Amino acid sequence: MAALKGVSVALFALFGGALVGFAAAADPDPLVDFVPVDALGDAQFKFALGNSTGIVGPGGQIQPANVINFPALTSQGQSLVRFNLRPCGQNPPHTHPRASEVIFLISGGPLLVGFVDTTGIPHLNALMPGDVTVFPRGLVHFQQNFGTENAIYIAGLNSQNPGVQPMFTALGAFPAPVLATALNTSVANLTLTALPKNGAPPLGSAASGCVPGSLPPGIRV
């Protein structure tokens, strides 16, 4: 019995420690109602998400609302992004290491969205106005407008600082021999110019391969 008790205590310590580590990885609970910006008064709780150009790329516009431009979100464990994607505009494959994401399509579409799980299975959906989808934390995902009009949608993330890591930008940062080995090709055949560089516009557009109003084969609304 003493041996069993010792094993139970050891297991409790092991799993309890794992749970504590997991909890510590999320945004901490706020210790005050909010973090005040005295110079702004009540204006600090208002942000014009739809009235600013934000970040412009060839595929459209992104307007984030985060602790940098909307300090009222500090310690609240959330952030927002408004997207305005042109036809064939794409938010390229990327991850958020510190947040899961929920998307709500306001207008336009179909907006093709998807992520790949840790078993390598893709999960794809074509959204129409009023549809919602979720991207689990840390998984590679994308959005692309296959409609004939601009797609406007809101993304909500459960972190004040979710982080974003564009997949192809990350790959392009590795030495050429490393990337060639990973892709099972030679350095001579490696087309590094096709990979976005750091600082490239976050929204791309397709010169080929995308026809507005026509979803990829096998995808239905």
Automatic annotation (TrEMBL):
<keyword id="KW-0732">Signal</keyword>
<dbReference type="GO" id="GO:0030145">
    <property type="term" value="F:manganese ion binding"/>
</dbReference>
<feature type="binding site">
    <location>
        <position position="96"/>
    </location>
    <ligand>
        <name>oxalate</name>
    </ligand>
</feature>
<dbReference type="InterPro" id="IPR014710">
    <property type="entry name" value="RmlC-like_jellyroll"/>
</dbReference>
<dbReference type="InterPro" id="IPR001929">
    <property type="entry name" value="Germin"/>
</dbReference>
<feature type="binding site">
    <location>
        <position position="91"/>
    </location>
    <ligand>
        <name>oxalate</name>
    </ligand>
</feature>
<feature type="binding site">
    <location>
        <position position="96"/>
    </location>
    <ligand>
        <name>Mn(2+)</name>
    </ligand>
</feature>
<keyword id="KW-0052">Apoplast</keyword>
<dbReference type="Pfam" id="PF00190">
    <property type="entry name" value="Cupin_1"/>
</dbReference>
<keyword id="KW-0479">Metal-binding</keyword>
<comment type="similarity">
    <text>Belongs to the germin family.</text>
</comment>
<dbReference type="InterPro" id="IPR006045">
    <property type="entry name" value="Cupin_1"/>
</dbReference>
<feature type="binding site">
    <location>
        <position position="94"/>
    </location>
    <ligand>
        <name>Mn(2+)</name>
    </ligand>
</feature>
<feature type="binding site">
    <location>
        <position position="101"/>
    </location>
    <ligand>
        <name>Mn(2+)</name>
    </ligand>
</feature>
<feature type="binding site">
    <location>
        <position position="101"/>
    </location>
    <ligand>
        <name>oxalate</name>
    </ligand>
</feature>
<feature type="binding site">
    <location>
        <position position="141"/>
    </location>
    <ligand>
        <name>Mn(2+)</name>
    </ligand>
</feature>
<keyword id="KW-0464">Manganese</keyword>
<dbReference type="GO" id="GO:0048046">
    <property type="term" value="C:apoplast"/>
</dbReference>
<feature type="signal peptide">
    <location>
        <begin position="1"/>
        <end position="25"/>
    </location>
</feature>
<keyword id="KW-0964">Secreted</keyword>
<dbReference type="InterPro" id="IPR019780">
    <property type="entry name" value="Germin_Mn-BS"/>
</dbReference>
<feature type="domain" description="Cupin type-1">
    <location>
        <begin position="47"/>
        <end position="191"/>
    </location>
</feature>
<dbReference type="InterPro" id="IPR011051">
    <property type="entry name" value="RmlC_Cupin_sf"/>
</dbReference>
<protein>
    <recommendedName>
        <fullName>Germin-like protein</fullName>
    </recommendedName>
</protein>
